[in-house]
């Protein structure tokens, strides 16, 4: 069945052409007399008037033809543009397929070429950026055993034992790949992701100097899935991601997340950090999950902002844990967490419920000037080192029922705070522990 629009245009064109031929012929006199209202002419005057009428008809016809030409030219241009776009999409699909295929090649230079090809493709095609970020993330999730030489500075024995035990549970890596070359490929994949997730901003003063990423190279709105990935000296400083999943990931070496921003959920559950974990100044817009995480070195969260619930339940901090000045807008869950080194929560702000029930503080625990706007639960917690709550502010009652003190502890809150008390300890404003270690026979439950 014919297109009604095309049929109407064809009929209109035929009628217009017929009318034009008629006006250029005998119809000119009729137009002159009945439309222009000119009569009584003869001789040269009549001939000049008829020629003028025919000239106007030709002008109108020429203008109409020009409009029709422009219309069809625009349609042809639009068709050509669509054809070109389809061709480009076909070329992009072909380039994407070839680049993705290169990632599976046995030779490291070919894999590197595939990564760079994917990067260029994503840079030129915003619609493909999430897909390519997913492909690069999937590559990093592939099984990998770092070379033995990676067991180097500041690797404590506990981290080494845990690492090798974990390797024994992982699938064997792809055969034929040199681990040293694969390390370079993975570092390149990590750098590509980080470079394009870092917006056009300079780090605050005091941070390690870094060149600003050009604005047109930033890929906004990316969701990362690095579940179970092996990440080497991972540098995510000042990066932005809509959401990120690092569950069960193995961070080999330093892990830097200073100033990073996660707009939605950030999940690190059961991840393992063999080196220092640096989250100072990071911002978590959604839930931050650090449950069952193993920190084998220092964990730095100073000044971090948790805008939703933060969960560190059963996390293991083998080194120092620094949360000084951190802000917890939602609930802060540290139930059954183990702090092997110093636990620093000085000046931290807990706007929601703070749950430290059953936590183990093997080193010093410092909560000086911390603010607890809601309930603070320390029931069943064990403090074996110096414990300091001086000038901590408890707006509501703080629960220390069945908490165990095995060393000196001092408790004090800011003046003017009403009903700030601890179960079994007494009013926080007056209860103190001696600065000297308690005698063995006096140690026990508070």
From TrEMBL:
Q: Which domain of life is it from?
A: Bacteria
InterPro entries, sorted: 5peptide_repeat
Pfam entry (one)? Pentapeptide_3
Q: Where is this region: Disordered?
A: 420-446
What is the name listed in the Swiss-Prot or TrEMBL entry for this protein? Pentapeptide repeat protein
């Amino acid at each position: 069945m014919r297109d009604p629009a095309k049929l109407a245009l064809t009929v209109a064109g035929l009628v217009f052409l017929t009318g034009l031929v008629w006006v250029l012929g005998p119809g000119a006199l009729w137009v002159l007399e009945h439309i222009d209202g000119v009569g009584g002419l003869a001789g040269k005057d009549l001939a000049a008037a008829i020629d003028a009428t025919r000239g106007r008809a030709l002008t109108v016809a020429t203008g109409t033809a020009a409009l029709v030409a422009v219309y069809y030219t625009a349609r042809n241009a639009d068709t050509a543009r669509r054809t070109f776009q389809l061709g480009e999409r076909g070329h992009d699909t072909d380039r994407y397929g070839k680049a993705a295929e290169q990632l599976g090649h046995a030779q490291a230079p070919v894999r590197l070429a595939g990564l760079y090809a994917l990067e260029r493709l994503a840079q030129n095609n915003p619609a493909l950026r999430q897909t390519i970020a997913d492909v690069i993330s999937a590559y990093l999730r592939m099984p990998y055993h770092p070379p033995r030489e990676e067991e180097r500075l500041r690797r404590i024995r506990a981290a080494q034992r845990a690492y090798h035990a974990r390797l024994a549970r992982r699938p064997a890596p792809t055969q034929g790949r040199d681990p040293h070359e694969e390390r370079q490929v993975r570092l390149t994949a990590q750098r590509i992701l980080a470079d394009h997730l870092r917006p056009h901003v300079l780090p605050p003063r005091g941070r390690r100097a870094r060149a600003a990423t050009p604005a047109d190279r930033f890929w906004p709105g990316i969701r990362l899935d690095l579940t179970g990935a092996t990440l080497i000296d991972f540098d995510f400083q000042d990066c932005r991601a809509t959401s990120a999943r690092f569950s069960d990931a193995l961070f080999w070496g330093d892990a830097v997340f200073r100033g990073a921003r996660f707009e939605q959920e950030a999940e690190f559950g059961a991840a393992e950090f063999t080196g220092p974990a640096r989250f100072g100044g990071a911002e978590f817009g959604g839930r931050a999950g650090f449950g069952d995480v193993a920190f084998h070195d220092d964990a730095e969260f100073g000044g971090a902002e948790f805008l939703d619930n933060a969960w560190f339940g059963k996390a293991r901090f083998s080194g120092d844990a620094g949360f000084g000045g951190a802000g917890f807008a939602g609930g802060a869950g540290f139930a059954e967490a183990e702090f092997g080194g110093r636990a620093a929560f000085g000046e931290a702000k807990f706007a929601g419920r703070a749950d430290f029930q059953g936590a183990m503080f093997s080193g010093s625990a410092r909560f000086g000037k911390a603010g607890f706007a809601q309930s603070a639960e320390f029931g069943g917690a064990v403090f074996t080192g110096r414990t300091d709550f001086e000038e901590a502010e408890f707006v509501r009652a703080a629960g220390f029922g069945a908490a165990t003190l095995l060393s000196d502890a001092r408790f004090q809150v800011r003046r003017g705070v009403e009903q700030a008390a601890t179960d079994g300890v007494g009013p926080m404003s007056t209860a103190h522990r001696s600065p000297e270690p308690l005698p063995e026979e006096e140690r026990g439950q508070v």
